[in-house]
């Protein structure tokens, strides 16, 4: 039959360090804990970065019109 087992060992031996790393990434959710560092990183990527991008987009809305411009025309509309 196909597959690995006690009577059908794999043809290539796997690197134990890679197997350990794979198991760590598969089971990462079991060992996650909220610490000040993980809370700050989550806050930064979930709230601060979108707020900065949203503010930048709101402040530059309508200032540049790229459609219908010819060589020598200015891009800014303000």
TrEMBL record:
Instruction: List the transmembrane segments.
Output: 39-60
The answer to whether UniProt assigns keyword Transmembrane to this entry is yes
| Keyword list, A-Z | Membrane, Transmembrane, Transmembrane helix
- In Swiss-Prot or TrEMBL terms, this protein is called NADH dehydrogenase [ubiquinone] 1 beta subcomplex subunit 4
Q: Which organism is it from?
A: Karstenula rhodostoma CBS 690.94
